[in-house]
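Job type: complex structure
Entries:
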Amino acid sequence: MENKNLNKHISGQFSAELEDIRNKVLAMGGLVERQLEQALDALGALDAELAQQVIDGDHRVNGMEVDIDEECTRIIAKRQPAASDLRLVIAISKTIADLERIGDACVRIAKAALEKRNNNQQPLLVSIESMGRHATRLLHSTLDSLARMDAESAIELHKEDAKLDKEYEGIIRQLMTYMMEDPRSIPGILDVLWAARAVERVGDRCKNICEYVIYYVKGRDVRHVSYEEMEKD
Amino acid sequence: MENKNLNKHISGQFSAELEDIRNKVLAMGGLVERQLEQALDALGALDAELAQQVIDGDHRVNGMEVDIDEECTRIIAKRQPAASDLRLVIAISKTIADLERIGDACVRIAKAALEKRNNNQQPLLVSIESMGRHATRLLHSTLDSLARMDAESAIELHKEDAKLDKEYEGIIRQLMTYMMEDPRSIPGILDVLWAARAVERVGDRCKNICEYVIYYVKGRDVRHVSYEEMEKD
């Protein structure tokens, strides 16, 4: 099997195809990263134009998902990859699903910005900005780890999500007290709450992508596995 | 290719393997369906024991996902499936990811039940019960459509999610007015709000699974495609 694999690589074409989907998934990651930054900027500044830009840009993210997924299926059918080549294709096909969902989270954040803007509400976003920066950094590092297929950093990043969850809980608590103090503020605060939730979900998606990197490098499925077990390997 | 495919099937073993993952994904679906029913019952009756049972049962859902996923990878590597066989394996490997996330939604609903129970809160769930029943029916029909690989019913069910979304919006509105009337109720209502959101997400997952059924039967990726286009085919 390994030998057959090697022959395929020698043919050059197969290697080029694998390289191509790798590049494409990184390009998709870059696009999603920009979407997240812009969505958070739009929410911070209540910038309706930028928010609309993020919403309009989502179809490109979706299109990339469908494209790359088709290419993965074609490679499996035509090249019949084995071992690490197959793991690469599988890791990529799973990664793009999570990237697409991060794209959806960006749309949700942008819609919260539009909603708040349209209702002429006061910004109330100090706390979400820091959480947003944290999520952006996490996504950036996750994509780095994916680009280098670096399992060590993926394991480290995997733990970061718990910190983001803590920040998120703090924000929910804060927002709850605001709502209780001034019930008229509730609809506006719920918009922020949905945005905060969307940011928190970005962390979950990054965690998933880290698991695919580990799966590719170590050949082991670490979903639902504890850190102790993960580091033992 | 088709011929080679046929030979594999004649060998019998390959067919048995495909049948096996089909049965397993349906068994996983059945388990998730029970989890959803019990989570909603636990929330309706504020039954802590039942809620805990749902939370404890989630590791079985997770375990099934990992098992079936491994088997899909093994089939791809060993059998090098083509055409509709490959589409079946891909559809199944995507379906289990959505089923696993419906399982997570069940845990979230069960946790809301526990939270409300522990705080001795009054139930306030009339509206979520009907939405919950709707989601349960949708999941049941989706699994039926998957069992029969019936693209027609999958297209019909795909539209159901929009109705669930409408119900969800109505509930959020209702909960918002309760919160504004009595700010002390806010923490308790947020629990219900998270539960309602989790139920709404079940609909999104069912929609995804319907798309995989259509992909398997029609050989076409219908994600991000409008109904008009979908029905034209």
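Summary: Chain A touches chain B through 31 residues (CB under 8 Å). The mean pLDDT of chain A is 90.
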